Recover the amino acids of this structure.
């Protein structure tokens, strides 16, 4: 989820993440966009799932070692089933919302499957591709070929950008991962609110749109908004929606 643009996803505490059930719940709580993850199957088809491992009909499988036909044959028909990329884009089109799509594989094949869907619906202004630098090299490489493509980079070490500027892209993400031990502590120890303000201006002067996340508590959300970052990814859609109305 996010403040500012009200980006939403998962609501994993109530529904299986990256599914229609979770997306619907987030939208019902006031979000107008979703964030989810895409990866390749064994036969180079794109499906929506965070991890390579997935429980399918009671059995744990590795998506990268499993064919799409097998997944389709063994998934259930509920709104918590694993989605194909085609089903995801149909959902985006039906609900007229924005999608932030985290790429889990640097494969050119996966990138081309995503581009096919963007072109099919003419969704250049609705789809944002994001990921850590190692996972989005292909997307970054093809920005010149697809000038409307919106690619954003998750920065592991933001301050290193003063030494080596990130490759040109639509945006960057700053922050920590709530739920990961010491992630918030380390970030705040290194980057104060004042330093974060300066870092935000630095990136904006370079032409990047600055976003934050993944933050799930009010104090963390306030930390970023105090620095002027209002697009914040979170799993707590309802909390974000309420806070955004207050700030």
């Amino acid at each position: 989820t996010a403040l500012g643009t009200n980006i939403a996803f998962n609501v994993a505490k109530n529904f299986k993440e990256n599914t229609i059930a979770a997306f619907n719940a987030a939208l019902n709580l006031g979000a107008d966009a979703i964030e989810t993850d895409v990866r390749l199957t064994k036969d180079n088809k794109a499906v929506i799932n965070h991890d390579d491992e997935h429980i399918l009909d009671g059995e744990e499988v590795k998506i990268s070692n499993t064919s799409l036909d097998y997944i389709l044959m063994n998934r259930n028909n509920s709104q918590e089933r694993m989605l194909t990329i085609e089903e995801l884009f149909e959902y985006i089109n039906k609900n007229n919302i924005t999608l932030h799509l985290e790429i889990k594989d640097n494969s050119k094949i996966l990138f081309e499957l995503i581009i096919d869907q963007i072109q099919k619906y003419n969704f250049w202004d609705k789809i944002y591709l994001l990921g850590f630098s190692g996972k989005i090299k292909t997307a970054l490489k093809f920005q010149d070929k697809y000038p409307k493509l919106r690619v954003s980079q998750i920065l592991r070490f933001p301050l290193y950008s003063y030494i080596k500027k990130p490759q040109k892209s639509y945006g960057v993400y700053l922050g920590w991962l709530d739920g990961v031990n010491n992630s918030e502590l380390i970030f705040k120890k290194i980057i104060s609110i004042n330093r974060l303000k300066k870092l935000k201006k630095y990136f904006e002067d370079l032409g990047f749109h600055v976003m934050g996340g993944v933050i799930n508590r009010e104090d963390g959300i306030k930390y970023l908004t105090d620095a002027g970052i209002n697009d914040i990814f979170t799993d707590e859609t309802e909390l974000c929606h309420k806070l955004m109305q207050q700030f």
Notes: The radius of gyration is 18 Å.
